[in-house]
Each structure stands twice: as structure tokens, then as C-alpha cells.
Amino acid sequence: MQELRSTEILDKEIEADARRKAEAILKKADEECVQIMEGVKTKLDFSRSEKEEFYKTRLAAIEKDITASIPLEKQRFKVAFVQERLMQAVNKYLAGLEEAEKLELVTKDFDFNSCKDKELVAFVYGFDITGAKAFLEKKLAGVQGAKLTGCNKTEFGKEIVEDEIGLEINEGIILETKDNAFRVRMTMTEVFSRLLDKNRAELAQALLGGAE
After folding, report:
1. Comparing 27 with 129, which gets the higher pLDDT?
2. Would strands 183-187 and 172-177 be described as parallel, antiparallel, or unpaired?
3. How confident is the model over 142-173, as pLDDT tens digits?
4. How far apart are CA 95 and CA 151, in angstroms?
């Protein structure tokens, strides 16, 4: 009987010891889990902070670029607007001129005396070929030895390289000798490109009433 009680006591002691060990193991496991979770949280917090800093820096750079580009875009818009309105005014002005007046305008800066003793061929675009031929012959009539031997219809940009500036009708005359040793161009593109480059501010002020 005594032996049975001793066995029961021993069993209880073994169970209690096992329970203590199990509780210790579980406690340690819980502590390790807490440490792991804290480590994960720390990493997540660091990663989140790193990402936030990255995107904050990117956003700041984008905002800086946008802020810097606004004045440039505003200036581009302003320049484009002024150019468009100027060309509208130029086209309206040209539409009100007679053919003879436009021929005088396109040749106004050319000294026909430079054609002395030259046989010339004309290439004409935009103008009536018959009217342009008669106009050139009249201009050359008073120049010693100058003679117009041909007057041909051509197209804008075909005989010479020209920039499109926004004229509704491109008009011009290219005058040259057969050997191409002498060549002059008299075009509306050239006339108004030069005029706009020289007097853009004044023209914008006059035509746009200060919108420039």
C-alpha cells in the first residue's frame, strides 16, 4: 500500500516537472514569437519609411520640374499666340492688296539695277504668271542690257528652301541667270520674316493692343 502511494507521489512529481518544463518551453516560444513579430514589424516599418521617403523625394522632384516648366510653357504659349495673331493680321492685310501692290511689296527691297547686262529667267509662284511677267519686264526695261528670257510657273519651296511662317497664300519670284551665277529671291515669306524679326514687339503691341 505504501508502495502505491509512493508511486502516485512520484507520478505527480513527474507530471508537475513536465508541466513546468512545458510551460517554460511555451513561455520561451512566446518570447521568441514576440521577438520575431517585433523584428518583422521593425522591418516593415523601415521598409514603409524607406518607401515613403523614396516617393516623397520623387514627388518633390516632379513638383519641382512642373513648377520650373510652368513659366516656360507660359512663355511658349504666349509666343505661339502672338505669332498666330500676327499672321492673322498679315494675311488680312495681304488679302486687301491688289496683285500689282503685292508685286511691288515683294520686290521693294531689290535693286533691279543689279540686273544690268544680264539675261534672266524668272520662276514665279502664287502670282498670276502673265501679270508677274509684265511687271518684271517693266522693271527691267530701264536697266541697261537686262532682258527677261523666260518666266516659268513653279511652287513654294521647289526652287529654293523656305520656311513656312503661316501665310495663307505663299507668293514669290526667283530671278536668276541661266548659269545660276546670279540668283535673287523676292518672296512674301522673306519680306515678312524679316519684318517680324525686326519689329515683332512693336507689331504685337500695335496689332494686339498690348496682348503681347
Report:
1. 129
2. antiparallel
3. 899 999 999 999 998 888 788 888 888 899 99
4. 24
